[in-house]
Amino acid sequence: MRLKLRIWRQAGPDAPGRLVDYELDGVSPDVSFLEMLDMLNDRLEAAGEAPVAFDQDCREGICGSCSMMVDGEAHGPQAQTTVCQLHMRHFADGDSILVEPWRARAFPVLRDLVVDRAPFDRIIAAGGYVSVATGEAPEANSIPVPKPLSDKAFEAAACIGCGACVAQCPNGAAHLFTAAKIAHLGLLPQGQPERDLRVVAMVEQMEAEGFGSCSNFRECEAVCPKGISIDWIARMNRDYVRAKLRGVERVPLKQ
Ligand code: SF4
Ligand code: FES
After folding, report:
1. Could you read off the pLDDT of 178-234 as tens digits, one per residue?
2. Which of 16, 93, 178, 234 has its CA 20 to 30 A from that of 25?
3. Would you give the end-to-end CA distance of the chain in angstroms?
4. What's the pTM?
5. Ligand 1: which atom is nearest the Cα of residue 158?
6. 119: Cβ below 6 Å to ligand 1?
7. Backbone dihedral region of 64: left (phi > 0), alpha (psi from -120 to 50 degrees) or beta?
8. Which residues face 212 on adjacent strands?
């Protein structure tokens, strides 16, 4: 395949960025999108040019590192597929492909396609854990968890923290990510003692990070590579309102 690539290049957080055109031939339809970028980078380096910086780690759809807009869609055109699992057979010979970093004020560009997703880490640090003693593994397993509940908790826990939901949202909202992280703990018996404190801490940290508001565009759900449902956002909002009506204020959870 022969491709025309238009890629966002930016040397650093404060440097001006611009779209740069590249032509790449000899691309196999069997390689992944990231492998195609590896090919481009090999050629750029051979020509003495700086390679295109992008985040990646597992390349199997589980770590949440890979992150780029492909033709205006977070993770590209394949539903429920991270960009590392997107294969070039979904493109045609001669295609022009636009590649940009996540678009969100709360995720500033560090270099080329790499953005700073530390705001997600700070939302998790605010309360995305259980600090009550659950004992060693055998004791934890002795707490009965109904199967339907553990299935629902697993659905929410499937969020890989990639940030596509934020990048695609016209408001730059982080509600889908935050709601999934709150739900997978809040559904389980072990998550109940801190349920109110957790939702207040994580929602208020999300707001402090400068993410936008949710106005139900549902773009987040449409691009989420793990099929996380916006039903979790409704649950987060209910939990938050209930906690505030009980007078819960944000205090640090034990770490
Ligand atoms: S909710 Fe989906 S899109 Fe958002 S961070 Fe989690 S896995 Fe990524
Ligand atoms: S590189 Fe790990 S999910 Fe894509």
Report:
1. 999 999 999 998 899 999 999 999 999 999 999 999 999 999 999 999 999 999 999
2. 16
3. 52
4. 0.95
5. 7
6. no
7. left
8. 173
Q: Which residue type, as a one-letter code, is found at position 174?
A: A
Q: Band the pLDDT of 254: cuts 50, 70, 90.
A: low
Pocket of ligand 1 contains residue 183 by CB under 6 Å? no
The atom of ligand 1 lying closest to the CA of 160 is 7
Q: Which of 137, 86, 95, 85 is nearest to 6 (CA)?
A: 95
Mean pLDDT of 24-53: 98
Number of residues written out for the chain? 255
Which of 69, 219, 226 has the most ligand 1 atoms within 8 A of CB, as the residue to mutate?
A: 226
Residues 126/202, Cβ–Cβ less than 8 Å: yes
- Check pocket membership of 165 for ligand 1, CB cut-off 6 A: yes
| Closest ligand 1 atom to 177 CA | 1
Residue 187: burial class (beta carbons within 10 Å; 0-12, 13-18, 19+):
buried
Of 63, 115, 121, 162, the one to substitute when testing ligand 1's pocket (max ligand atoms within 8 A of C-beta) is 162
The answer to whether 27 and 1 are in contact (CB under 8 A) is: yes
67 lines ligand 2 (CB under 6 A): no
Reported confidence tier of residue 131, pLDDT bands at 50, 70, 90: confident
- Minimum-distance ligand 1 atom for the alpha carbon of 174: 4
